[in-house]
Design a protein that fits this description.
Helix content: 40-55%
Low-confidence stretches: none
CATH topology of one domain: Glutamyl-tRNA Synthetase, domain 3
CATH class of one domain: Alpha Beta
Distance between the termini: 82 Å
Structural class: mainly alpha
Largest sheet: 3 strands, parallel
Radius of gyration: 32 Å
CATH architecture of one domain: Alpha-Beta Complex
CATH superfamily of one domain: Glutamyl-tRNA Synthetase, Domain 3
Number of strands: 14
Mean pLDDT: 96
Oligomer: single chain
Shape: elongated
Strand order of the largest sheet: 1-2-3
Length: 502
Amino acid sequence: MSNATIRVRFAPSPTGPLHMGGVRTALYNYLLAKQLGGQMILRIEDTDQTRFVAGAEEYIIESLTWCGIEFDEGVHVGGPYGPYRQSDRKELYVEYVQQLLEAGHAYYAFDTPEELEALRAASSNFQYDASTRHGLRNSLSLSKEETARLISEGTPYVVRARIPAGEEILVDDLIRGEVRVQSSTLDDKVLFKSDGMPTYHLANIVDDHLMQITHVIRGEEWLPSAPLHVLLYRFFGWTAPRFAHLPLLLKPDGNGKLSKRDGDRLGFPVFPLRWTDPKTGDVSSGYRESGYFPEAFVNLLALLGWNPGTEQELMTMDELVALFSLERVNKSGARFDPEKAKWFNQQYLRRHSDAGLATLFIPVLASKGINAQTATVEKIVALVKDRVNFVNELWDQSWFFFTAPQTYDEVMVKKRWKPESGALISQLAEKLTALPHFTTEALDAAVNEFLVEKQVGMGAVMTVLRLAVIGSGMGPHLTEVIALIGPDEFARRIKNAVTTLQ
């Protein structure tokens, strides 16, 4: 198969917010398509109208756009194989159901939900299959005339796949190798529902064929359905695409599938963007609103289940495209580590220029009523960016550049503030504010000179000076802080500390 023919799709259902596992599936499809010069398609699979959630489709598109995952065709961009929303393709599926019925690969079933429920209640391992179908109410057990009569009278029915008995079905998976399944373990899945809509099983096969999909890369939860899909391709006489079933994303402790509840319990998002449930109003946090860069989110997702075969961890989208291969996707589940996720964001924050970070930080300052010069904010960001994981944490590490301390660390005051401290830092402040050049270098030199003159140690002076300027023992190199707040503000802070603490 030539690279030019590679076509992949991401086909989510609009039943709620897109889980980060879904984003990873979209990402792996995208990386393969881009690497091989193929096309990436977004198809919305909304055949189950009972689970439709308003706003979910828009949320999916916005999430993938934020991540930088682009589509060549899809519900939002159009293309030659549309429509790309399954509910808009409804009439099309009827023709293919008819083909299966006429070929004997499917049949009408008139059993009511209540009848089926009673059978399941009577037998915990009841399955609608080759061993039971002839004793149930369907077109295989009824005469042609009776079947036709029931249909003409409008009796509700579904169409089921007729799974052959006693066969071994082979699923050739690009990640798991050959998966062999006995047909007796499969039930006669519903392909067409009584509401006139196809199920996922039929619709996705028909659409993948008509849209010329060459590779179906999807979550592990679809592996049990793969034998049925292989059979459907055979029933239609079509060539099946290559399958690749991705490993699960696991909870931080590695025990079970990662869920929204885990995120709520442990305080991290599992959705790319914030989601507000349209029915309950419940709000779920998102990576974007939590301060993650999309590049960091994509990078961490890529490495949950795949590795490049090297020690490299930080990779741009272009690098991921160049390095990605399905052969290096793991079979086993990938444990999500929320602390590692923060580390990724920290690394991408450090990769930003000071000017870029200042642009992101200025709105945070504005929200606190602070109007600062861009050049000053750039210098401040440069001093504190290595101390944070997120842009919004810059404030906690730099507030003292913009506003004087209102309180002083009590433990530090008790331990470090001596009766002579006030006089000592007042004299130092007088010396520093008189400097012709109020730079870090000039301030450092003047401080050293002062310590020699007064014959006092660095700790005795600088700790209380930091306390007066910042209110605690935190912060970057002190003279860098003093240089940026300027001589007038520095003098005010010294005077206020001495007045308050003496």
